[in-house]
Amino acid sequence: MLQNDENRHVFMAIAIVILVTSPIFILLFPPFIANTLYHTSADWHIFVPGVAYLFYGFAFLFLALSPGIIFILDMTKKSIVFGMIFLFLSGISFYIASGPYISLRNDEISYRVLFSAEKHTHLWADIEKVNYYEVHSDEGFSKYEFFFKDGTSIELPENGHITLLRGQIRLKVPVK
């Protein structure tokens, strides 16, 4: 019985380590993954939408639940099956979270939305208009809204990285 308790506590420790470190990883993983998958030499910046951070959060939660449920249910066959299910759900969440991005490049804007395998690419000349909505610092980020000639549009929050690119964006398109 002592060996079983020691094994259970290993799963508890793994779950706690994942829970404690996940906030740091949630901040670091999305930009790292987006830059690894989508970066080209022409990129100004690759932006990860907030919805991707939400799915990374779910992924880490499922990842922590995987050993946590094994600890809670006392290492039974049922707990191991649930742990594997949570591990599978974590993998699916990581996969979904790695999809959406917005890339600003020298000649184009490309993006992919959540739950879509289709990559959208528009030249800067394809932009019909850009609206800039200024928000005071207490209320969140200001944002750009790009409207393309084909009728599609995207929103881009002006975080610290995008603020540095404000001049380049305004040189490419007139902002209202």
Write structural notes for this entry:
24% of the residues are buried. Strand 2 (101-105) and strand 3 (108-112) form a beta hairpin. It is built from five helices and seven strands. Helix 1 (2-38) runs antiparallel to helix 2 (50-72). It is of the alpha+beta class. It is elongated. A four-stranded antiparallel beta sheet has the order 1-2-3-4, covered by helices on one side. A three-stranded antiparallel beta sheet has the order 5-6-7, with no helix packed on it. It has helices at residues 2-38, 50-72, 77-97, 160-164, 166-172, and strands spanning 43-47, 101-105, 108-112, 120-123, 127-133, 143-148, 153-157. The mean pLDDT is 87.
Name the descriptors.
7 strands, 176 residues, alpha+beta
Strand content: 15-25%
Instruction: Give me the secondary-structure category.
Output: alpha+beta
> Main sheet: which strands, in order across?
1-2-3-4
In total, how many beta strands?
Answer: 7
Largest sheet: 4 strands, antiparallel
